[in-house]
Amino acid sequence: xxxxxxxxxxxxxxxxxxxxxxxxxxxxxxxxxxxxxxxxxxxxxxxxxxxxxxxxxxxxxxxxxxxxxxxxxxxxxxxxxxxxxxxxxxxxxxxxxxxxxxxxxxxxxxxxxxxxxxxxxxxxxxxxxxxxxxxxxxxxxxxxxxxxxxxxxxxxxxxxxxxxxxxxxxxxxxxxxxxxxxxxxxxxxxxxxxxxxxxxxxxxxxxxxxxxxxxxxxxxxxxxxxxxxxxxxxxxxxxxxxxxxxxxxxxxxxxxxxxxxxxxxxxxxxxxxxxxxxxxxxxxxxxxxxxxxxxxxxxxxxxxxxxxxxxxxxxxxxxxxxxxxxxxxxxxxxxxxxxxxxxxxxxxxxxxxxxxxxxxxxxxxxxxxxxxxxxxxxxxxxxxxxxxxxxxxxxxxxxxxxxxxxxxxxxxxxxxxxxxxxxxxxxxxxxxxxxxxxxxxxxxxxxxxxxxxxxxxxxxxxxxxxxxxxxxxxxxxxxxxxxx
Length: 484
Prior knowledge:
Blueprint: H1 2-41, H2 44-65, H3 68-78, H4 83-108, H5 118-126, H6 128-144, H7 148-170, H8 174-197, H9 211-218, H10 222-246, H11 248-264, H12 266-280, H13 285-322, H14 324-356, H15 360-385, H16 387-412, H17 423-438, H18 443-465, H19 467-483
């Protein structure tokens, strides 16, 4: 009976993860497309200023988001009938916090040198509002464990943003045009999310909202909200410090490598968005640990070969996408950033266990320690190593976070296995490294050949040592075809 529950849980999480992952892949391709175009067509300082303003917006909206979405996930998954009122209350809280916060930021940060044009800053900050609202709709869809509608909306948003930005670049409107295109795409995406929300049965008239609903939405969100803000700073503080110490040009170099890292992080977000509601709805320790370990295995399948490619072919990949201007300076940045993908995934999946267990103080402690390490290392390394120093700080801070989270889980008696789910993908990635070092072909050919060899080596290993990993990924592929 327990095995049937685990199987049903895994299948449901896998189905939602695949739908979300397909949308994330399409969205990431669209985002990468306009980023590549902007890097090639804008001066380095303008390119860096756009992403510096984007980073400010993401940090501020993380503060406005607080812990509302996490609370909505936990309570909306456990008590589905409460979801409509909690959903509306969450939107009210987010709007009430974000409007004054973004207005104040637009006035106070206008003189920051790395921001560049004030128009760019204002347009990027304005995009924060519709993005906050869209995030809550995606959270409600995760509570319902129905991902198709919001996944389509996410694709619409990314594609619309890419189209608007590319049109602005083609018209020669510079950094201001890129920021305006980003805002336009975000608004279109929010409208698509609103349409998707009609299928989620979360309609709740604003006039029918009561104080009890607002109180329920904010209850027990303080620690989660502070933790979420700390996590966002952990993810973005390197860009803020780099811009202040080195200027927009260094931000541009760092952004090139960082965008490649972000492009592959969809696996973490897709799996976490699908697994967290399932973990929240089960009381089985065995199910929780199994879900976390399988999430780690899928993460390793994607991220360990990414590290191999970044170490051996990083400069050629950057040259192919962003041009020779960034290839040399950004290659060592990418090499140091690449391991952060696996470490971030490990920290995220184990964070979800802590969240389900209600260990919010442990969540805050782990992210705070990592943030402190990150800030200290950035301040020490950026003056010496520039953008590469920021990359070193990022990767080491995620390593610290993962270690601290695992320590807390061990004390709670629910520590998942970490190394064994990664053995097959790790060994196959070593084979990939050797192959890429020995090959001397065009980079695209090497990547195709490397992918085939890596997959073959991985299949041989998992069939012998971890057949359950093959079953999970085969199920993901089959569901991906259905979703497509």
